[in-house]
Amino acid sequence: MFNQLGLIGCGLMGGSFALALKKAGLVKRVIGYSKSPSTVEKARRLGVIDVAAESALLAVSGSDIVLIAVPVAASEGTFKAIRHLVDPNVLFMDVGSTKRDVVDAARRVLKERLPSFVPAHPIAGREVAGIEHADATLYQGRKVILTPLEQTNPTLVQKATDVWAAVGSQVLKMTPEHHDAAFAAVSHLPHLLAFAYMNAMGEQPGGQEYLSLAGPGFRDFTRIAASDPTVWRDILLSNREEVLRQSEAFRQALEAMERQMRDWSGPDLQRLIQTASDARSQWSLGGGKPPQTVR
């Protein structure tokens, strides 16, 4: 049981974490801060937080667990704002979708206080943003990736593991580098492709007519293109090297299929399609047992 959660960033992710802790009876009080006073007030009205803080530092004051739920580009500024109250016995976590840039910022700013920070990435979310969409069940049955450093306090890593498990998440651990490489492949590139595809549709003379004819396949393929633009701008830029590496791999695979089409090579094209179909058929969400630690 925590006495107080300090929530920095009262949006979907942070708000859902606060509600999940409350639902599980793991926290007595939540004090929240966001740059927008109206957002903080809405969070208070909705019962997501109990007290509104006037600054990130005041949200940390008196808290024994702190969640930093801000865009990844705002991580360094947030660390600077709270640095003087980063206590060695308090668990500090983030929810950023990239980890190397967040960890680098933490190293630069927190320095000797770095052991208190346990970088985290819950694999959960929705296409809609905002505190009004916060949901106590958002993290149930979802993976949470922790990327602790050599300096990270093992006691706080265990505490982070326990709190995420208590709200129904499966906790995995890996290095920040491995995390960013993996999620460039399975999350960041798919978003980039969905955004680019929707832009390509919109720029065609007959694009709007084509969209009116679209069915479930188009809906499923483009669902993530409705994701928050600010969030995904930051993610794609912060992990650009890994995303561009995956984009090149995708481009090569696409060119291979285009080549078979230009050559009217039906058997070779079918073979490539069959390979993809088999791989997709064998995959299942949450299937398999990934390693608990990747170093």
Topology:
Blueprint lengths: L1 E7 L3 H12 L3 E7 L3 H9 L5 E2 L3 H5 L4 E4 L6 H8 L8 E4 L5 H11 L6 E2 L1 E3 L20 E4 L7 H13 L3 E5 L1 H28 L3 H6 L3 H7 L6 H10 L1 H23 L3 H17 L10 E2 L1
Parallel strand pairs: 1-2, 1-4, 2-3, 4-5, 5-6, 8-9, 9-10
Antiparallel strand pairs: 7-8
Question: What do these coordinates show?
Answer:
This protein is α/β, with parallel strands linked by helices and about 300 residues long. Helices cover about 50% and strands about 15% of the residues. The chain has helices at about 10-25, 35-45, 55-60, 75-80, 100-110, 155-165, 175-205, 205-210, 215-220, 230-240, 240-260, 265-280, and strands at about 1-10, 25-35, 50, 65-70, 90-95, 115-120, 120, 145, 170-175, 295. The protein has a 6-stranded parallel β-sheet. Helix 6 (about 155-165) links the parallel strand 8 and strand 9. The radius of gyration is 21 Å and the shape is elongated. It starts with a strand and ends with a strand. The mean pLDDT is about 95.
